[in-house]
Each structure stands twice: as C-alpha cells, then as structure tokens.
Amino acid sequence: MIFVARIRPFLTQWLGCVETCCRDGLWVYRNQCKLSALHNYSCQMFRYVALVSVLLSGATPPLAVRPERGRPQPTRPSPTLEDAVTGSHIDTSLAAPSAGAAELHERMLTFMGGHVLPAEAAYLAYRRQAGSDDHVVPPVVETLKRTAQQQGLWNLFLPAESGLTQLEYAPIAELSGWSNDLAPEAINGQAPDTGNMELLHLLGTAEQKRTWLEPLLAGHIRSAFAMTEPDVASSDATNIATRIERDGEDYVITGRKWWASGAMDPRCAVLIVMGKTDPAAPAHRQQTMILVPRDTPGVTVVRDLPLFGHHDQHGHAEVRFEGVRVPVSNVVGEQGGGFAAAQARLGPGRIHHCMRALGAAERALALMVGRSKTRVAFGGPLADQGVVRAQIAESRLEIEQARLLCHRACQVIDTAGNKAARDLVAMAKVAVPRAATAVIDRAIQVHGGAGVTDVTPLAVMYGWHRAMRLFDGPDEVHLRSIAKAELGRTPVLSPAAP
To answer: Which phi and psi (to 5°) does residue 406 adopt?
Structure first.
C-alpha cells in the first residue's frame, strides 16, 4: 500500500495524459507528462501506449512525431558512451532545439505536406513514362528544390552552412525520409552528395572547394562515391584492390567499382574514388581518396544495378577505371589518408541514413494504421483484430526505441565528436534499419497484395531499407565493432556474487 501511495501521483498524471490524448486526438507533449525522475524514459514509452488508441480512434496525426523538447544541456562536459557505461557521468538529457531549429522543423513539416507528398504522383508518372533505363531527374524535383531554397530549407545537413547541430537536424531529416526519392534531394540533403560535401568541407583544398563543393552546395551538379568493388569483400576496406599509382604530377587509376550511387544521373560531374596508393604501407595507410571528373578519359559507366529489381533514378553504377589519369592535386586530404577520410565521411552519413529511415518507418506505420481502419475482414475492420493491434503497438515501440538511440548518437557527435560517438553510431546503424524494415514488413502484411506492388510506396521502401543493412557497412561489421568495444569495458560493479 505504501508503494501504491507513492506512485499514485505519477499514475494520476499519466492517466490524465492518456485521457487528454484519447479525447482530443492530440499528441501528448513532454510538458504534459511531469513525471519527475521518470520523465526522460517513462514519458516517452507511456505516451505511445496511449497513441495506439489515438491512431485507431480516427484522430489525424501530424506528418511525423514532433521532436522532443528536452532539457537544456548541462554546462559540465558532455558524457561519452564510455562515461555512460562506466558511470563516471550519467546524463541522458538531450539538448533542446534552438528557436531557429524549431521553426525550420515546422517549415519542413509544411513543405512536406504541401509540396513534396503531393508531387509524388508527378514524379512517378514521369519515371514510368521514361522507363527504368532513363536517369534524368523528373522536372518536379527541380521545382521542389527552388521552393525549398526560397523557404530556407537548404543544406541543413552541414552545420557550417545551416547552424544546426546534428540533433537539431535529426527530426528535419526524419521528415525527408517520408519521401526518400524526392525530399532529400529537394533540400540538397541526399546521399551520396551529403557525405561527399562533408568530406570536401573537412579536407578539400581551396581549389577543390571552388570547383566541386560550391556547385554541389548550390545543387547545380551531383556526385558519386566509388569504394565498393565486386571482386573483394569491400566491408573490409583494407581489401580494396583498385590501384592509384603516381606518375609524375599525375595519378593513374585502374580498377572496377560497383554500387557507385548517383553515377547514372546525367548531372553527376565527379566521383570520389578510393584505391590503393601504397600496398606496402601499414594496412590503414595504403588507401587514398581522389577526385575523378566523370568525363575523364578511361572512366566507363558500365551499367545500373537494380535494387530488388527497382532501378533508382540516380542509379547505382558499375564503373570501370582504365588508365584514368588525374592530377596529384585531386587527392582528397593526403596520400595514405583514405581510410581515415572514409571514417570521417561515413560517420555522419550513417546517422543521416538512420534519421531518414525513421521517417520511412513513421510513414509505413501511418499507412498500416490507415489500412487497418478501412479494410474489413471477418465481420469488422482489421483494426479490431488483436494481432493487428499488436503489430501497431510493436511498431510504435520499435520506432521510439530506435529514435532515442539515433538522437543519443547525434548528441554525442555534437558534444564530443564523431570518434566518441562511433559505438553509438554503429548501434544506430544496426538498430534503426532493423526497426524500419520490421515496421514496413508489417505494413506490407496488413496491405496484403497491394503491399508488394507499386500501388503503395511500401515495396520500394522495404527494398531500400533492407539494403541499408548492407551499405555503409553491413550489420555484421558494426556488431563486431560494438562487441569489441564492450569486451574492452569494465563494468561499474562486479557481476560476480561475493
């Protein structure tokens, strides 16, 4: 009875939130859930138990879950993952977004609902008429880009351009994930260009920035990243076999790449190629990254690789490099610095993919809920079936758990840097696509035959996010890194009994 008396205030406040949520069909914000010490964790989970009822009650949710307004960041040094595990600092609060970031999120929400989602029909109609072998961008994308620029929704991924932290950018990028073919490019936040721009921003020379970074930031050209090779296990970067050999003031490149995303697009003007410059050097000093203009003699785009049978507009190309000659000044960073540059590029790139994947999962859940309320079987709507309700609830739980991990990784990137966040980024890179594919798969199941066709976006969404468990490092590589870090840690208490 004493325990019940102690928790009664928490239960009363929580039930009040549920009542408000169900009565008004509104999202329950954090400031409605004053749960004292339970605030950070319990509020998030408790409110989404109520949201299952809200989603099935007929209330119309916003395009995506609005970003949490966390407590201000403490002034003491932000904890790293090691701190959190060892207990030297235990702080799970997330910094509140600035007023400017909150305004950009609202602007993005309006842009998605008023411009991007309505443009999907025109985009698909153009692509169907042009055929899978055509990789010209549909005109509606250029229209969206102009609108986004006018509204200040441009280059938000790069803190130096936008002033946003990664944590502030995360909910905006998540919204773009609702329409992965249109929205990321519309705001100039599409892969692989974002990673390439970040790399040039960090390591590019003044000439490289002027020649390539500036037109990329302006959205005038596109780029590709050529690292993966068909003949070796490219998840181990030390296996890369493409040769980059010095010849006077030039480098000569010979090799074969595939999954060079973006290289099929006629606007692709440059590729960042990773290859070996010194096979005799230590394993992580053998590789170098170099800029190769797409029209350089010896560069041959062989074919586009379909993703589960679907040909992306930007394409995923197989590319041959046969005696390709470029000047020494095209090296990104330094000779032998390719491995380190790859890590610098892939860290933010991985977390950006995770942000967008959360948006796809949100859309899939919204489609699942809508279908379950309107589709009738066995005497009633699917939403009345316990198994469907369980799928809806499981989906919400998985999305929220994945989002918290993604945002935590963003916070550590912002406060302690990419290196400190690498384990969290690896965890997010495994957990988020797992959650997204699970949610999308359930949505497909609820849609029946329609779910595996182009009647809904679910089939294409599933293919992309299943592939996400391979690109930018397969799950197994990230799990290996996570386990290695865990095996090297000392627990805060001895697990053995005295």
So the answer is: -60, -45
- Give the distance from CA 15 to its chain's centroid: 34
- Cβ contact 348:165 at 8 Å: no
Can you give the pLDDT of all 498 residues of the chain as single tens digits? 444 444 444 444 444 444 444 333 333 333 333 333 333 333 343 344 344 444 455 444 445 333 333 333 333 344 444 444 433 344 557 888 999 999 999 999 999 999 999 999 999 999 999 999 999 999 999 999 999 999 999 999 999 999 999 999 999 999 999 999 999 999 999 999 999 999 999 999 999 999 999 999 999 999 999 999 999 999 888 899 999 999 999 999 999 999 999 999 999 999 999 999 999 999 999 999 999 999 999 999 999 999 999 999 999 999 999 999 999 999 999 999 998 888 777 777 899 999 999 999 999 999 999 999 999 999 999 999 999 999 999 999 999 999 999 999 999 999 999 889 999 999 999 999 999 999 999 999 999 999 999 999 999 999 999 999 999 999 999 999 999 999 999 999 989 876
- CA dist 166 and 409 (Å) reads 9
| Three-state secondary structure of 291-338 | EEECCCCCEEEEEECCECCECCCCCEEEEEEEEEEEEHHHEECCCCCH
Task: State the burial class of residue 485 (Cβ atoms within 10 Å of its Cβ: 0-12, 13-18, 19+).
Answer: middle
Domains in the chain: boundaries: 1-61, 222-332
Residue pair 318/271 in contact by the 8 Å Cβ criterion? no
User: Could you say which of 3.90.660.20, 2.40.110.10, 3.40.50.300, 3.40.50.970 is the CATH number of the domain covering 222-332?
Assistant: 2.40.110.10
- Indicate the residue type of 232: V
Q: 451-460: list long-range contacts, CB under 8 Å, 24+ apart.
A: 454/124, 456/367, 457/120, 457/363, 458/364, 458/367, 460/181, 460/310
Percent helix, strand, coil in the chain (nearest 5)?
55, 15, 30
Pair of tokens at residue 455: 């009647």
Q: What angle do CA 455, 460, 462 make, to 5 degrees?
A: 115
Q: Say what the pTM is.
A: 0.82
Instruction: Look up tokens 């960073």; give the residue.
Output: 333
Helix (H, G, I), strand (E, B) or coil at 151: coil
User: Is 174 within 8 Å of 66 (Cβ atoms)?
Assistant: no
Residue 41: CB atoms within 10 Å: 12
Q: How far is CA 61 from the centre of its chain?
A: 22
Specify the pairing of strand 287-293 against strand 222-226.
unpaired
Per-residue burial over 312-325, b = 16 or more CB atoms within 10 Å of its CB, e = otherwise: bbbbbbbbebeebe
